[in-house]
UniProtKB/TrEMBL annotation:
Species of origin: Bacteroides acidifaciens
Entry annotation: catalytic residues: 344
Protein name in the entry: beta-N-acetylhexosaminidase
Domain of life of the organism encoding this protein: Bacteria
Domain GH29D-like beta-sandwich: 561-615
Length: 774
């Protein structure tokens, strides 16, 4: 008897998973996010035209109809559906003991039994069945010669967090309704239940408002600057054509909301105030501060000083305008939550505006941050009276007037500003930019489309743990969940959005659903591959960045050590040193490659004999500085002598930069006297990110590291420094055959970017990639 009890305990332990064959048809390798408990059985259940679904009510019938439609399109069969009648092969039973969104799924060769306490749970059970089916179930056309079978399995499942969100930004890049619907369906398959719809910003107004038609007539359209990256685009001039944009009609919004609701997704609209409002103010400039005399246009990029133009906090008609807008928004979106923005509001004009200053005096506000607090509280109170709950970005915590019962979305850095709200008892959601902003690079940057701000890889998203060890216990109870943000600054078409979203969205789902401490990277990759096959059938071209190689080239004792890594552990790396392309017959990478001379290293990843990623090409070039030590042994400066040039992406880990740009200095020890004819150094300009050449570069030499003599100096004018564009230059100095052991390089940054720069007031940063001595 004890033996049987032990077996039962093992079977139903929440940490128990029984392993079937290692293939994509195994339930262990098919469902994202991973269920809490999954016990494989024996045999398979096969769907056919004779399959009968029996449900209890109309709500259950509605979600089953959508599921049956998959078979109608892809299989050319239509299983039957009855409400409370018949002996079905797929049976729904309400079990009130289960939590909301939880489900119990029992699949045998003869029958499928589904239990849940609400429609959400039944829907998620169907999504798990959907992922167990062949990927061809997503086809829009009938597919022949497919057996529509799923493996026998018992699944008990429930989410870790109630709020599992994705922000979608159709402002910077307009996303047509059809593409939004497809993304929603892919979200639903992953059991993501909140769509944060970022509908307004400086770069466009994307929703029809009947009372204020100019919001879309003017605010939805901007000048064409698509030949220049987002961060480098100049502001519009009065009278320029504005062909770029688009918006959703109210009927399209209703369709999106209904489509999402059918898939258990709540659409949360965001109307961003008081900042990120140039599109609205381009249409209705009277709602800006009266001190603003410049032309207000819809911004094609960052905007520079123009982004400081925000709603006037001292003008009562602004609040009437916004309340009118929200009145229409509330009729379109039945969501419990409304997002009001509140981020990145620079108070330059409020400080000069007589109306804003009068408001501050009347309300006895200490500063402009509290004026924003007043602004947000006044609007939030209006929405709360309408029965809605307000979400805002974490800048709301900068004011002592944190709107009552507001929910804070923690985004800056690691999102820790949200904890200031938690300290006051406010609920919060985590979406840290350093991990959950999907606009960042998702793999080795040499292969990726241009964006900015470094890497947020698939592995980074998967590894994220929102609940930190140093949190106070009460914080966790206030954490509603997590969200990823798909900003579209560097997208020019809907396919660009898909590329950045997938497959990282699957990693978000895994973090949001899976119990803490139970994630498994290797298992996730297999399940994600099965999910990717499903979305590929839907026409989505997902990123394959996870198969690409990241290199680290380090100078060590006179030679270079080349390390290659891919964050997929199930691939192998093959490489060549003779210039040929790698193949399965090439050297297998098992550890660092030693390089002592000019060398071309080519490498790629392989799985089951097939090349999976792009070919990495590393041209390592020998010169008298290569692999020589730098005094002080600073890690970042080793990039200057590692023989590898950087790409046009200054964050690709091959560009050296400094915390202070006003006095850059480093010294190379050649380990003996060398005859030197030429000095050269590589420098990158990325105008939009404020990366510029220094105003001065000086080269000095010494025999003893005490007495130095100047060999040459380069100086650059502001016109040369702030030239627009993204490009690399090598700057050289004739050394005249001097003999020396030590070479010291000094550089001085250009200082603060001027007022007409796209990043006025920001320090110009210096980036060098390689020192070359001949």
């Amino acid at each position: 008897m004890k033996k049987y009890i032990l077996i039962i305990l093992i079977l139903f332990s929440p940490l128990t998973v029984f392993v079937q064959a290692d293939n994509l048809t195994s339930p262990l390798n098919s469902i994202v996010p991973r269920p809490v408990q999954i016990v494989p059985g024996s045999g398979n259940f096969i769907f056919s035209a004779k399959t009968l679904f029996v449900v209890e009510n109309e709500e259950q019938a509605a979600i089953v109809c959508n599921f049956i439609d998959l078979f109608t399109r892809a299989a050319g069969i239509t299983p039957a559906l009855n409400i409370r009648e018949g002996k079905g092969q797929v049976c729904f039973t309400t079990d009130s003991s289960l939590k909301s969104e939880a489900y119990l799924l029992e699949i045998t060769p003869e029958q499928i039994r589904v239990k849940a306490s609400d429609t959400k749970g039944f829907f998620y059970a169907l999504q798990s069945i959907r992922q167990l089916l062949p990927a061809a179930i997503e086809s829009e056309q009938p597919v022949r010669n497919i057996i529509w079978s799923i493996p026998a399995v018992t699944i008990q499942d429930e989410p870790r967090f109630g709020f599992r969100g994705l922000l979608l930004d159709p402002v910077r890049c307009f996303i047509p309704k059809e593409n939004v619907l497809r993304i929603i369906d892919c979200m639903a398959m992953l059991k993501i239940n909140k769509l944060h719809f970022h509908l307004t910003d400086d770069n466009g107004w994307r929703i029809e408002i009947k009372k204020y038609p100019r919001l879309t007539e003017v605010g939805a359209w901007r000048v064409d600057r698509t030949d220049v990256p987002f961060h480098s685009r100049r502001n519009p001039e009065r009278g320029e054509p504005t062909p770029i944009g688009g918006f959703y009609t109210q009927e399209e919004i209703r369709e999106i909301v209904a489509y999402a609701a059918d898939r258990q997704i709540e659409v949360i609209p965001e109307i961003d105030v008081p900042a990120h409002s140039n599109a609205a103010l381009a249409a209705y400039p009277q709602f800006a501060c009266p001190v603003v005399k410049d032309f207000i246009g819809v911004l094609p990029g960052l905007g520079g000083k123009n982004s400081e133009i925000i709603y006037c906090a001292g003008n009562d008609s602004v609040f009437t305008f916004l309340q009118d807008i929200f009145d229409e928004i509330l009729t379109l979106f039945p969501s419990r939550y409304i997002h009001v923005g509140g981020d990145e509001a620079r108070k330059t004009n409020w400080e000069k505006c007589p109306l804003c200053q009068k408001r501050m005096k009347k309300q006895r506000l200490a500063n402009e941050e509290d004026l924003q607090g007043y602004f947000m509280k006044r609007l939030s109170d209006y929405l709360r009276k309408k029965g809605r709950e307000v979400i805002g970005w974490d800048e709301l915590t900068n004011s002592s007037f944190l709107p009552e019962e507001s929910i804070i979305l923690g985004w800056q850095g690691m999102g820790t500003a949200a904890l200031k709200a938690a300290e006051k008892g406010h609920r919060f959601i985590m979406t840290p930019a350093r991990i959950m902003y999907l606009i960042r690079y998702q793999g080795p940057q040499w292969f990726e489309p241009v964006t900015y701000f470094g890497n947020n890889t698939l592995k980074d998203v998967f590894d994220y743990e929102p609940v930190q060890k140093d949190w106070k216990p009460e914080y966790e109870s206030l954490l509603m969940g997590i969200q990823a943000c798909m900003w579209t600054e560097f997208c020019n078409k809907p396919e660009d959005v898909d590329y950045l979203l997938f497959p990282r969205l699957a990693a978000l789902a895994e973090v949001a659903w899976t119990p803490a401490g139970t994630k498994d990277w290797s298992g996730f990759l297999k399940r994600m591959d099965a999910y990717n096959a499903h979305i590929a059938e839907k026409g989505i071209i997902y990123a394959r960045s996870m198969y690409n190689i990241q290199q680290t080239v380090t100078p060590i004792d006179g030679h270079l050590e080349v390390n290659l890594e891919c964050f997929r552990p199930d691939v192998e790396i093959r490489y060549t040193l003779n210039g040929s392309d790698p193949a399965m017959s090439s050297h297998r990478y098992d550890g660092p490659i030693r390089v002592t001379q000019t060398q071309m290293v080519k490498a790629a990843t392989f799985m089951n004999g097939k090349q999976m990623g792009e070919t990495l090409e590393l041209q390592l070039t020998c010169n008298k500085a290569m692999a020589k030590p730098l005094l002080g042994n600073k890690q970042n400066e080793k990039l200057l002598v590692n023989g590898l040039r950087g790409s046009l992406k200054y964050t690709d880990f091959e560009w050296c930069n400094w915390n202070r740009n006003d006095s850059i200095s480093f010294t190379i020890d050649l380990l003996g006297k060398e005859k030197l004819n030429k000095f050269a150094i590589g420098c990158i300009t990325n105008y939009g990110m404020g990366a510029h050449k220094p105003k001065m570069i000086r080269v000095e030499v010494s025999d003893d590291n005490r007495v130095y003599r100047t060999i040459g100096e380069l100086n650059f004018s502001p016109e040369e420094i702030y030239k627009e564009g993204t490009y690399k230059n090598d700057y050289s100095i004739d050394m005249g055959g001097v003999s020396a052991r030590y070479v010291r390089v000094t550089a001085k940054g250009a200082g603060i970017c001027p007022d007409n720069h796209v990043r006025p007031g920001q320090e110009a940063r210096v980036y060098f990639d390689e020192v070359i001595l001949e």
